Amino acid sequence: MRKKVRVIVCSLVVLGLVVIGGGVFAANYYYSKLDTTAALKHEDVAVDSSLTAKEKHSKVVNIAVLGIDQDGDGSNGRSDATKVISLDMKNKKLKLSSFQRDTMIFIPDGENGFDKLNHAYWYGEAPLTLKTLNYNFDLDITRYVAFNFNAIEKVIDAVGGVEIDVRPEEKKVTNDYIRSMNGASDDDLDAPELQESGLQLLSGRQAMGYMRNRYAEGGDFGRMERQSKVMEAVIAKVSDQSYLELVKLAEKCLPYVETNLTMKEIIDYGSAVLGFDLKNIEQTQVPQPDNGSKSVDYKGYGPFYIMKSYQDLVKDVHEFIYNDSDYQPSQTVIETEAAIYEQFGHVE
């Protein structure tokens, strides 16, 4: 079975540009190609009452972007890449937050309880993933874009590949993943393995092998960095595409996208993003690689990463996303942190 990390934000930009350029007919046509779901209200996804007006006051729109590993086994899959795109309308900036998939959190639904962040999608798809992010990090996310396993390979190939500087220690494991993906498919052309490290043009499958690599230096934090490098490279290439090239790209990638964004929201946000500098995206990892944590086994497998301070983690998230350096975590975050430490112990 293929196991890959697949997530790309370009569909928001692509669809926005296409519908703006093509008018109402194009908007309806391309929007119909998406797998659309119902809008989510604050109360549906555990947005704290103190945060319901955060978007209005901060002028920051948050959209969760989920890369789903479904493995063809009939399950919902896991969100092995969980990111939040923040559109800072006031300062005309696009920010990208990458959330570590193995972070110990509390899934606030039924009997799920303590678990890894990426398991929330497995239990309840996008709505529960948003609910889990909001509950544990005091966020206000009600919108999402999710990509299935075919999306990233086709998008990257459609833009002619991406240039990535592959470090020597990343090459071997990346090639292991490329061979695995080649062997799992008998209906397409195999991608060549990387012959050398250094700056080079990667095809869609080569880029997926590179992004899925979690065994090179840095572990899963290194993998998040690799995901972000590829995403930034794709966005830069998309922003340089002509209208006709964007139309072709939309045709290829939109059938693999699920979202609850309305057509009006896509047009509005796409219009706004046109005025952003997409070649200078601000990025962060949650938690930062140097954040104190410990690894534990739980439910028969691991690793689960327990943070030294979940309250400090939430403060860092709010400072990055909302430019709010004075934020104080909610009582929910305080109580969840205490419950985690009571069961698993503090980080020394």
Automatic annotation (TrEMBL):
This is LytR family transcriptional regulator. Gene3D superfamilies: LCP protein (3.40.630.190). InterPro entries: LytR/CpsA/Psr_CW_biosynth, LytR_CpsA_psr. It holds the Pfam family LytR_cpsA_psr. NCBIfam families: lytR_cpsA_psr (TIGR00350). Residues 78-239 form the Cell envelope-related transcriptional attenuator domain. The lineage of its organism: Bacteria, Bacillati, Bacillota, Erysipelotrichia, Erysipelotrichales. Belongs to the LytR/CpsA/Psr (LCP) family.
